[in-house]
Design a protein that fits this description.
single chain; 204 residues; alpha/beta; 6 helices; disordered C terminus; binds zinc ion
Amino acid sequence: MTASTEASEKIIIDQKEKERFMREAIRQARKAEALDEVPIGCVIVCDGKIIARGYNRRNTDKNTLSHAELNAIRKAAKKLGDWRLEGCTMYVTLEPCQMCAGALVQSRIDEVVIGCMNPKAGCAGSIINLLQMAAFNHQVKITEGILHDECSSMLTEFFRRLRRSQKHTADPGQTSVPEQADARNQSPAQDQSPAQDQSGAPLS
Ligand SMILES: [Zn+2]
């Protein structure tokens, strides 16, 4: 086997492995969805094994801190017996917010693999790239777009269903989630966009 064939086979294997872990992150997101939470999920991988899982439970827990990433970071630290997640990789269905990106830097995690980006609230490159600020003492490798379409359509469909159910149940005059809102510009679950705050929907 030539070196270049070996290299391209390795890339294919890496890609397949990334997709396998992202699929598990999607499974976590579906748990959030089952609770009427915005579907966002993640897993943390160490030495090729999943050591922690998390999904968005913000409304369920009535807690700002209950984002998928923080829930998983807490579990991973407990499992490793260390707050440092060196040597670990997080697979997350949506680009992390400022709080989670900050926690990821603090955890000294090696890498974050992202399903789809979040232009309205993401802090791994969309609004700001907190994961790779040269001034901080730790930078996190970023890989984007693993199972992008599945991660993105899961959110788009969630918000479509939400708008539909609001149309059916809303009192006249009640503010509903705007038509133009979609997964990418709606800032799913993990921000404070006016659309969510006014809607009274299970997003905020
Ligand atoms: Zn977050």
